[in-house]
Structures are given as C-alpha cells and as structure tokens.
C-alpha cells in the first residue's frame, strides 16, 4: 500500500490507491470511531482498499489527520470531527468502535475524560448501532485482565484490576464498555463483537506516545539511554498492526459474539526487549533502570486458542519484519521532528 499511495502534488490532481469495486450487495457503509489514530487508520486503509464506504469519526485527541490524509477527497471516504461522548447520527451498516486513548501516558492525562469516552462514548455508539441495526465491534484490551494471576490470559479469566489506581480509568472504562455491549446485546438485540487487543505496534504510532515500543526505538535511534521502568522482568508480547487489522475484520464478519483475544503470544521481558531493540537499531545507547510504575502488570501474554478456532486467525508478522517497518517509520519521524 505504501508504494501505491501517491502523495498529493502541490499543484497537481490528487490520485488515490486503486480500491476494489464492490457491487451494491457487498459494499458496506462502515463507521470507524478513532479512525485517525494508530490502529484505526490502518483499519481504514484495509476497509477502503476492500471497496467499502468509510466514515471516520474522531476528535483528534491522539489521532492525526495525516494518518488518513491519503483518503481525503476519495468518494468512498468521509471524516467527521466529533467527540463521541456526544450523540452522533449517521446511517451505517457496521461500526468499529476504537475511539479511546490507548497509551498509559495519554489515558492518564485526563482520567475523567477517559472514563467518559469509554462509557458515554460507547453508549452513544451502541445507541447508534441499535437505531440503524448495525453490527458494532468494540476495541477492548488486555488491560481488562489487569495485573493477571494466570498466565497466559484466556478469555475465561475475569481479571485482576485495581479500580482505584492510576490505570483504573482505562481498565474499568473498558470493562464497562464490554458490560455495556452485552447489556445492549441482551436487552436491545444489538449485534456486538468484542476484541481484547494486546500490545500492538507499527508505523503511525505517535512519536510522543510514551509506550515501550516507541520509547525504546526513539531512544535507540538517538543513542540516548533506553529507560526500563522497574526490574525489567515484567513481560509483554507484541503484535504487528497488520495482524491486528486482519483479526478485527475477521471478527467483525464472523459469527462469534463472545470476547476474543487478538495478540501475538511471542513474549519478552522488558529487559530482553530493550536489548533486542538496541541490537536491531545498532545503537550505542546504555540501558538504564528507572523507578517502576504503579500497578504495572507483571506478566502479559495472550492465549489465542479462541481466535484460532473461531476466526482461523493467528499473527503472521515476525518481530524482525515488524520492527524493520516500525524503525524505518520512526527514523523518518525523528528526522522530521528535528526539521
Ligand atoms: P490512538 O490513541 O492512536 O487512537 C485512538 C483514537 O481515538 C485517536 O484518533 C483519538 O483522537 C480518538 N479519540 C479518543 N477519544 C475520542 C473521543 N472522545 N471522541 C472521538 N475520538 C476520540 O490509539 P490506538 O493504539 O490506535 O488504539 C485504538 C483502540 O484500540 C483504542 O480503543 C485502544 O484502547 C485499543 N487498544 C489498543 C492497543 C494498542 O496496543 N495500540 C491495545 C489494546 C487496545
Ligand atoms: N444515540 C446516538 N445516535 C443514534 C442513536 C442514539 O448517538 O443514532 C445516543 C443517544 O443519544 C443516547 C445513547 O445513544 O444517548 C443511547 O441510546 P439509547 O437508544 O440506548 O438510549 P435512550 O436514547 O433511550 O436513552
Ligand atoms: N516501559 C518501560 N520503559 C518505557 C516505557 C514502558 O520499561 O520507556 C515498560 C512499562 O513499565 C511496562 C511495559 O514497558 O511494563 C509496557 O508499557 P507500555 O506503556 O508500552 O504498555 P502497557 O502494556 O503497560 O499498557
């Protein structure tokens, strides 16, 4: 896709990637809340390339117009600047509800707003889905498992979240979002899908995102200290964004309505991950240890048996391949931010 996107020339006509032509029966009107964000914009690319009509609704809190710039002006594409904590009236067939800050630094910035986005915002999306009889997929998270007592985490696990800690606004917001989905499914027959997304990385992550992948890569590129919070023995498992997008689309269009984990089970300690990034970039950065974060989950790795069985899905992109694309992206971003 990257090669096919021809950038808008200063004075020339705008050209677009070649999208599939769908018949009336197959072409869907799809709303993507949070579509200008990291994951949302990659999902928009896939849906547009597949020939659907896509409407993005975003308030640009953490998203950026540049992420979907290449579609602006296309007849199948529309963008609405709107905060989903307020009602939204559009006519669509499917809703991918992704609007919510995702990085701890972003969601802790205004915890009240994070709760509102995930509760009131989700309720508005469900009210919309109910009125227009659309299927709704909510982007939930592995954070609903909190600091897990079982490992790896399967969808049967109810979680171990501190409701009053600094991560509570996001974790409990997402748990409420899931509860709202099943309440609307039971009471109002809304057709729902719930994706529990595990740590995801790739191009278009925000340069100031503060998450481990972006921090470590930028630190390595700049040959400044790579900062590990806590002992570095805590683990995460990282999936590349294109794998997630494939999983989201499969979940939306499948028949399974219980929650499904989408993640890559390839698990690293944060210390191992720091060394991996340092070596990958060929950096001279020292690796330093800082104070640990409050309520930082100590282990995380998805059990993806359910996604395998019900969606025939598993991640395909290796960490080397994913990091190559991501490091290339951040190299350009760092260069641009200097200019
Ligand atoms: P992101 O911050 O890049 O994107 C979120 C988008 O939502 C942004 O464009 C932002 O402007 C928009 N938004 C936030 N609040 C809004 C509001 N009130 N009204 C309208 N738009 C609003 O984050 P992301 O990494 O792309 O995450 C997308 C979704 O996936 C989120 O719901 C997140 O919780 C979930 N998720 C992501 C990860 C991950 O590792 N990236 C992991 C688990 C879950
Ligand atoms: N809603 C929306 N768009 C719609 C339909 C509803 O944003 O097309 C909002 C509506 O304003 C309400 C929420 O979704 O705040 C929940 O809707 P529901 O119909 O469940 O609740 P009610 O309107 O009966 O309180
Ligand atoms: N982390 C770190 N250094 C950083 C950023 C994050 O050691 O510069 C750690 C963090 O403490 C956590 C893990 O990396 O244990 C993943 O953090 P991230 O914010 O990426 O996502 P989370 O999975 O915690 O939401």
TrEMBL record:
Chief place where the protein resides: Golgi
Pfam family, one: GDP_Man_Dehyd
InterPro entries (UniProt xref): NAD(P)-bd_dom (IPR016040), NAD(P)-bd_dom_sf (IPR036291), UXS-like (IPR044516)
Membrane-spanning residues: none
CDD domains with a match to the protein in the record: UGD_SDR_e
Stretches assigned to the NAD(P)-binding domain: 31-326
SUPFAM superfamilies: NAD(P)-binding Rossmann-fold domains (SSF51735)
Known pathway: Nucleotide-sugar biosynthesis; UDP-alpha-D-xylose biosynthesis; UDP-alpha-D-xylose from UDP-alpha-D-glucuronate: step 1/1
Alphabetical keyword list: Decarboxylase, Golgi apparatus, Lyase, Membrane, NAD, Signal-anchor, Transmembrane, Transmembrane helix
Membrane protein topology class: Single-pass type II membrane protein
The enzyme's E.C. designation: 4.1.1.35
Record's subcellular location: Golgi apparatus, Golgi stack membrane
Cofactor requirements of the protein: NAD(+)
Record-stated family: Belongs to the NAD(P)-dependent epimerase/dehydratase family. UDP-glucuronic acid decarboxylase subfamily.
The name this protein goes by in its record: UDP-glucuronate decarboxylase
Lineage, uppermost ranks: Eukaryota, Metazoa, Ecdysozoa, Arthropoda, Chelicerata
Gene name in the database record: LOC106469093
